[in-house]
């Protein structure tokens, strides 16, 4: 009997590689790691900007709620792009996708580096996000299509670790550059690296099957984008206009209606962007829920803690970035060990241990008088729990699917990973801004602390949900 590894589909809907030889051509290796390098640059500039918000607020004379769109808009645009990557990988040539991604990274980077207003900076960020959204899934599609089965894990782990290093280094890189020179150098310094990675990839990438002529399901795409944008707008308004009808309830209604219509249209389509029947699989749905929640909290913390450190504790951008480095590197180093733990013992052990560690860490964040040493310690603890869950829960979720739904599963995980980060940043920023409402006569320190602890308590609530779902997971035989 053939295994799912022999019959499955990658994120582009192609059959997984059937090769058994361990030989991988030099061109394939260059194309894979060139694309991984370009994706690394995209994620690096994404996370580097989180520590620059106080600087941007002063330079552009605007509020934190406005500046946080520098990250929120980026993540939202990446999520929107990843919705269509499975379709695009079958409809267009891979070289064209790489050229779109590389060109967008360069054009967006130049716009960001030369921006004279917040709106121009946002435009550059969105353009760069589109590039990252096209390139990152292509890294793993190449591995599943062009690397022999017996070494796919090695290539996936190496490329994945390269990309995972970006959020680990991002806050420190951004803080160092901002403190010593200018935040604009965040983009100028990454452009040469991104250009080299782009050229290497486009020179060596090959495609195992010709593109198919397929009609783009534009209505489905518009509906899902409207839903994502409306929900983000609704939640972002909490920190400025509160729960007003025009800015909160109306966009929320638009979200519900758009999602409902999207589900109906998708179910009746012979070429859906995403097969919504995939959510009928309970274990997959639980895995996706955990994945979304822990990404929401993790990205939310990487926004919240650096801004609290600068706005309340008076530290500089370099210090606020450095304090997250130990935790991020801990997570990157533990991820391979966490994967081995799941391989040997199933999902129950890492899910339960990881979710409990996350709950302890977020609980301590919420009840503590935060200082730099305590933030460093608690973030390390949090990242230990995160490493036990994040990659393992995605692997577990995909293992529950039949071969013909693997492409949809990959698209859902990739999209929700980015959108969870977008919502995490949006909501944490909104709650941080409510500190001035809670303590109208307090000092900046008092207001920032009040808003920070409110946001941290939300993290505790979300982590409780993670624990509840994590303890309900069952090891099920792979399809």
TrEMBL record:
GO cellular component: plasma membrane
Primary residence: membrane
Superkingdom to which the source organism belongs: Bacteria
Subcellular localization(s) per the UniProt record: Cell membrane
Keyword Membrane: yes
Residue intervals passing through the bilayer: 28-46, 66-84, 96-120, 126-143, 155-173, 185-206, 218-236, 248-266, 287-305, 317-339, 351-368, 374-398, 419-438, 450-473
Bilayer topology annotation: Multi-pass membrane protein
SUPFAM superfamilies from the UniProt entry: MFS general substrate transporter (SSF103473)
A Pfam family assignment: MFS_1
Domain Major facilitator superfamily (MFS) profile: 27-478
GO molecular function: transmembrane transporter activity
Keyword Zinc: no
Alphabetic keyword roster: Cell membrane, Membrane, Transmembrane, Transmembrane helix, Transport
Family: Belongs to the major facilitator superfamily. EmrB family.
Protein name: MFS transporter [Lactobacillus pentosus]
């Amino acid at each position: 009997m053939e295994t799912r590894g022999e019959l499955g589909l990658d994120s582009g809907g192609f059959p997984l590689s059937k090769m058994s030889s361990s030989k991988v051509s030099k061109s394939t290796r260059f194309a894979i790691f060139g694309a991984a390098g370009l994706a690394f640059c995209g994620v690096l500039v994404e996370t580097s900007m989180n520590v620059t918000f106080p600087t941007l607020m002063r330079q552009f004379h605007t509020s934190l709620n406005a500046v946080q769109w520098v990250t929120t808009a980026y993540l939202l645009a990446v999520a929107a792009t990843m919705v269509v990557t499975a379709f695009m990988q079958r409809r267009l040539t891979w070289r064209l996708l790489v050229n779109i991604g590389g060109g967008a990274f360069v054009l967006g980077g130049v716009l960001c580096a030369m921006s004279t207003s917040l709106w121009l900076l946002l435009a550059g960020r969105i353009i760069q996000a589109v590039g990252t959204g096209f390139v990152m899934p292509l890294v793993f599609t190449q591995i599943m299509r062009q690397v022999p089965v017996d070494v796919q894990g090695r290539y996936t782990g190496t490329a994945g670790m390269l990309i995972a290093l970006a959020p680990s280094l991002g806050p420190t890189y951004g803080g160092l550059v901002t403190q010593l020179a200018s935040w604009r150098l965040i983009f100028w310094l990454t452009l040469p690296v991104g250009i080299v990675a782009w050229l290497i990839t486009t020179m060596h990438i090959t495609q195992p099957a010709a593109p198919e002529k397929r009609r783009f399901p534009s209505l489905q795409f518009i509906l899902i984008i409207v839903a994502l944008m409306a929900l983000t707008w609704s939640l972002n308004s909490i920190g400025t206009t509160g729960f007003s009808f025009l800015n909160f309830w109306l966009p929320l209604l638009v979200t519900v209606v758009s999602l409902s219509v999207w589900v109906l249209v998708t179910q009746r389509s012979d070429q859906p962007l995403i097969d919504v029947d995939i959510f009928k699989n309970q274990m997959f749905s639980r895995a996706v829920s955990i994945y979304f929640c822990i990404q929401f909290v993790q990205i939310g913390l990487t926004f919240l803690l650096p801004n609290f450190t600068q706005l309340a504790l008076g530290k500089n951008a370099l210090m606020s970035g450095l304090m997250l480095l130990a935790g991020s590197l801990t997570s990157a180093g533990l991820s391979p060990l966490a994967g081995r733990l799941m391989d040997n013992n199933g999902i129950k052990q890492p899910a339960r241990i990881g979710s409990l560690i996350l709950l302890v860490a977020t609980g301590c964040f919420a009840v503590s008088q935060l200082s730099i040493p305590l933030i460093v310690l608690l973030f390390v603890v949090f990242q230990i729990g995160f490493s036990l869950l994040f990659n393992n829960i995605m692997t577990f979720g995909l293992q529950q699917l039949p071969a013909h739904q693997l492409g949809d599963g990959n698209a859902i995980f990739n999209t929700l990973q980015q959108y969870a980060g977008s919502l995490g940043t949006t909501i944490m920023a909104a709650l941080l801004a409510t500190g001035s409402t809670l303590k109208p006569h307090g000092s900046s320190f008092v207001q920032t602390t009040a808003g920070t602890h409110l946001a941290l308590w939300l993290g505790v609530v979300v982590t409780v949900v993670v624990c509840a779902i994590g303890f309900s997971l069952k090891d099920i035989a792979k399809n």
